[in-house]
Design a protein that fits this description.
Pfam families: Aldedh (PF00171). This protein is α/β, with parallel strands linked by helices and 497 residues long. Helices cover 37% and strands 20% of the residues. The strands form seven sheets. The protein has a seven-stranded mixed β-sheet with strand order 14-17-18-13-12-20-21, with helices on both faces. The longest helix has 22 residues. The mean pLDDT is 97. Bound molecules: nicotinamide-adenine-dinucleotide (NAD) and N,N,N-trimethyl-4-oxobutan-1-aminium. The site of N,N,N-trimethyl-4-oxobutan-1-aminium has 8 residues, from loops.
Length: 497
Amino acid sequence: VRCVSSGSVDVKVPLNFWAGKRQTSPETCNKEHVYEPATGRVLCHLEPCGAVEVDQAVKAAESAFGHWSKLSGMERAKIMIEAARIIERRREEIAEMEVVNNGKSITEARLDVDSARLCIEYYAALASTLAGQHVQLAGGSFAYTRREPLGVCVGIGAWNYPFQIASWKSAPALACGNSMVFKPSPVTPVTAVMLAEIYAAAGAPEGLLNVVQGGQETGSLLCHHPDVAKVSFTGSVATGKKIMEMASKGVKPVTLELGGKSPLLIFQDSDLENAVRGALMANFLSQGQVCSNGTRVFVQKDILPEFVEEVVKRTRAIQIGDPLLESTRMGALVNRPHLEKVLSFVDQAKKEGATVLCGGEAFVPSDPKLRGGYYMTPCVLGDCTDEMSCVKEEIFGPVMSVLSFETEEEVLLRANDTTMGLAAGVFTRDVRRAHRVVEHLKAGSCFINNYNITPVEVPFGGFKMSGIGRENGQVTVEYYSQLKTVFVEMGDVDSLF
Ligand SMILES: NC(=O)c1ccc[n+]([C@@H]2O[C@H](COP(=O)([O-])OP(=O)(O)OC[C@H]3O[C@@H](n4cnc5c(N)ncnc54)[C@H](O)[C@@H]3O)[C@@H](O)[C@H]2O)c1
Ligand SMILES: C[N+](C)(C)CCCC=O
């Protein structure tokens, strides 16, 4: 039974959280509106945190670190598993709030909550496996390494996967013994604080996961804070560069999960049905607002007409509307300025000679309560060329650019001709071609005969300007811990003096 409906929710509770409880910021004069994308109503007000609140949150995290970092992996895992159980029980409620704040369909929001839970379960399982090495040295002496946490880590998130991003960052951080202060995007402040509350309810020490709200000023205070040991950021390339610069002042390590303009290569020997499904998954999840989207769809010339016909037919059939309805497959874009930006990309594409094969227009649902929402019809652009802005720039909306190619060599050159390298995909039945192509693609996540799947057991992250470091998978432990080497002398000191 649905607890909420679009247009019916007002979030009145404070959205900041530190030292184990929700906190109000005294900065009432700086309150900002937060909108419900499905209706355009004001959903709540954001109370941005200033230097005092950021400091309180970091202090709370420091205090929790003192206790948490001394627990065994098994003890940490117990609390994380309890948090995962609470998420499982509250799945529908969290997914509904994600929909209300972000605009994506409830079907997708549920999968995002599942991914968040699985990530916590995965790192809980890894927590007790963290260990160092024993190295035998001459004369019976030896050295060993201890894998130690970093301290207070900062997470800064984008608005497209608010709960999932908060979980993907906090789960490995906490499993390694760190504490965290997380700042969600000011556009989607509602669900990260639910995660902080869930950890507290699961028995985490006060201050283990804290949430401070705000935009770039708050983010910048966090990056510059002297007691912060690491910054993990998800967002645009432009902001990522600033984060790296700020972190460099304190020589703090960064994880950067940035933007993309990923290619999807469809060869003529593909299973066409799967290739079409893959192209839709590569472009229209979360209203196209996905970093890893394969928005440059290169199709081998001989199958182009067939492919385009099928993709356009299925794109036209995508059910747009109230994101809380089970039948909806595409909800609203995140806000009005972003919708306008995406629509202007479509206009620009037309001016540059692309053909709109379907969609690309603002959409007004028939339900009166949704009329102020930020909807558009998903768009397929044909006759695209490599120089067009729709092919060069990250649009971050439901706009697929279709390009034609003839040879493998040619398409690889064109696919790699970008400053970004988050993801890439190839559809072919030729197993040798598939691996050969993937070897040459300059991207952090490559998909063969699928697209946009992100199981939490495997690393995710970008090459080139799409980022530094990885999230998920075992390797992420490396990004949230450091090695201490201990030399143990069993004989006498062999002094040169
Ligand atoms: N690679 C990934 O995993 C991934 C995932 C999701 C989104 N993204 C990327 O995120 C972008 C869209 O998200 P967005 O519009 O929220 O990005 P954004 O860069 O505008 O903002 C991201 C976050 O950074 C904060 N911020 C902005 N300026 C800051 C500053 N000077 N100092 C500190 N913090 C600052 C924002 O408040 C927000 O919380 C796209 O480019 C998308 O590709 C990447
Ligand atoms: C759509 N996925 C597969 C969940 C990826 C989300 C990560 C980036 O936006």
